[in-house]
């Protein structure tokens, strides 16, 4: 399953974001280092399900369909907070970044309201500038990776020369377990001094930064957008980082819980909800819901939580959703389930690659594929498109 990790300084709402997206109940509290060990749970990204357009009733198996919206599972990872100097052991240090590295995308959560200082201690709302929190985080992750990359460096470089090893492969081996590929390293090396014998510490740090940026795309979310001090900060942050997504994890939790209790109807990512049982809501709850509608949903279009997950998978990772089926006329699998599975595949993948993603056996026995919508066989170099329904024809 594709993984997204949340990171940031302490007390910004990482665990709140995690809980809101996964319906989990890990501890959240207004002090730094509430989270120590990593939390993992399933969240979903959402796309329109083809069932609506095709006017069929689907029987989802690996995913969920609600009102024509397909929810595809991903895994979300919540880790401890990082503070400046973590690579020198400040705060909880940075050893837990092993957990972060399992993810393909990072969501950097910042406290847009400015109610926590650089180490996550509560301060008067608006008294800390969240822009100050953005840069140090990448630097801390870079320094952690640099520590791994440069381990036994002198001995390593001597060995590369003596045994005529490939430097990219050696760097790749140093970083094993981080999900970083040799392609990432080759790309990252391009604008670095070509002769590794001349590399100084600063070159190696720059190389590490390039590797991180290529291998682990990061987005910023401006959390606590519901607080009055956030709006002006969000405007300033957007001037420098146009893609920042305002979020209110706390509002998302309130809406998801009210929906679970049957009090409202709400689908994550929507700009509205409907009150179903007004008589069961007390005046405070009604007021809170009204506040969320006006100050979050009307103002920003959503709580931002779902938008952030979708942005990570569909934009930063450039994934599309493809629906493999067996019967191209009925859009069903062997058992007659309509549009059972949606797969998050890289944009531009071929039908054979899809077959391998579904199952190695199916990949090995792949003969050709049929675009079920058009009922037409597709070429072997056909690039899959978002929403494609593909019947894979296999040998034997
Ligand atoms: N107003 C508001 N408060 C929030 C929001 N998200 C989180 N908080 C509050 O911020 C505080 C910290 O939340 P956590 O989710 O524990 O933060 P964290 O980043 O996981 O913290 P650590 O695990 O200590 O690093 C709690 O008091 C939350 O209730 C939000 O969207 N709006
Ligand atoms: Mg936490």
From TrEMBL:
Domain OBG-type G positions: 2-267
Signal peptide per UniProt: none
GO molecular function terms noted in the UniProt entry: ATP hydrolysis activity; GTP binding
Alphabetized UniProt keyword annotations: Nucleotide-binding
SUPFAM superfamilies: P-loop containing nucleoside triphosphate hydrolases, TGS-like
Pfam families with a match to the protein in the record: MMR_HSR1 (PF01926), TGS (PF02824), YGR210-like_G4 (PF08438)
CDD domains, alphabetized: TGS_MJ1332_like, Ygr210
GO annotations of cellular component type: cytoplasm
InterPro entries with a match to the protein in the record: Beta-grasp_dom_sf (IPR012675), G_OBG (IPR031167), GTP-bd (IPR006073), P-loop_NTPase (IPR027417), TGS (IPR004095), TGS-like (IPR012676), YGR210-like_G4 (IPR013646)
Similarity section: Belongs to the RelA/SpoT family.
Protein's name in the database: GTP-binding uncharacterized protein TIGR00650
Classification lineage: Archaea, Methanobacteriati, Methanobacteriota, Methanomada group, Methanobacteria
